[in-house]
Amino acid sequence: MEIGALVGIFLSVVLVNNFVFAQFLGICPFLGVSRKVDMAFGMGCAVTFVMTISGVVTWLIVHGVLAPIGRQFGNPEALYFLKYVIFIMVIASMVQLVEMYLRKFFPALYVAFGVFLPLITTNCAILGACLLIDMNDVYQRSLLKSAVFAFGGGIGFMMAITIMAGIREHLRFSDVPKALQGAGITLLTACILALAFMGFAGIGK
Amino acid sequence: MAEANDTNLAQFKAGILDNNPVLVQLLGMCPTLAVSNSVENALVMGAAVIFVLTMSNLIISLLRNLIKPHVRILIFTLTIAAFVTIADLALKAYVFEVSKKLGPFVPLIIVNCIIICRAEVVASKRNVWRSLADAWGCGLGFTMALCILAVIREMLGAGGITILRDLGWVWHLDAKTFEPHAWVVMIMPPGAFLTLGLVIGVVNHLRAHGARKRGG
User: Fold this and answer.
1) pTM of the entire structure?
2) Which residue range is the domain that position B94 belongs to?
3) Which of A89, A123, A194 sits opposite B189 (nearest CB)?
4) Residue A4: phi, psi to the nearest 5?
5) Has residue B2 been placed in a domain?
6) Chain A residues touching B82 at Cβ < 8 A
7) Total Cβ atoms within 10 A of residue A167
């Protein structure tokens, strides 16, 4: 039963509520880093990695630090106004930690992710995942479900950006009207992809 | 950066037209796509961004000689996060329904590239008045771009425009005629990508046209 619920959350966030095509999170890297498939895949992996870790860590901070301290003052939500400042600091420091850890223990991976890691701090998909977890009652009650949601969000992002890069590699050879070159045609392609992803609506529930 | 004459007014105008953050510089795409499904959302989001941009530019410009270069991004982000928290609480207090619809996109102003970009390019280098002029120019430019998209999407997708239902200001544009023919897809995600793509195409075309004319 529990496994079924987790698979449902995963499929829903990868396909139905895809971060890029349904929730508009992480559009900047989606437009900027989707020229080549290998770059896009690297970015997607780095985002998945950081998103899962920061989703879990922010959940732990809200429930393990903010709520207990708030309870001392008689209201668990007393310190919740600090959430946003704390979330962004957690993400920034997670990115730093991940960068240091990779450089020490997985140099090959560090070289592959290297360029993208600093960019991820201001990737709205990461903060968006933490905020969505924070706003949803189901995820508030279960750390495991939150982790699966964050991981699925990253996988969905990776899928979207890799598909887009694959299409854009072919678009280079097509005759695009001058005004639409670059961002314009990418957005129109994204429109068609988003239409296709709407076909997944109704799966799960 | 097209700055013919280096004045506060020029900076203000550049943010609205020549350097429009959304339509020309392609910054802040996520909120633009997500929030332009109705004019009401667009206006509230625009107001929140103008507030945060003004305050962060003001504070960063005042602190610009104290901020050490290697920690500047951290200080920018924390300043912005503080004002976003204020804006979020204010929206929840006064326009609760709209703030619920905006969902995570109000807190996501923290990582909005427009605000960090303005802090980096202008506020950390220029005086307070220049930074304020820039904040209002870019803020209005952002709001204007959002409203253009929102008007197109809401007219086609919902058949009429409804503003501030909470406060009782309803402006329904001939809904009876259009509603049965509304293209619902326009207020859904694909409509957002389509509209923004086409509007950017039109803007590029007009700019190329203008440049040709000026060139002779």
Assistant:
1) 0.85
2) 8-215
3) A194
4) -60, -45
5) no
6) 85
7) 17
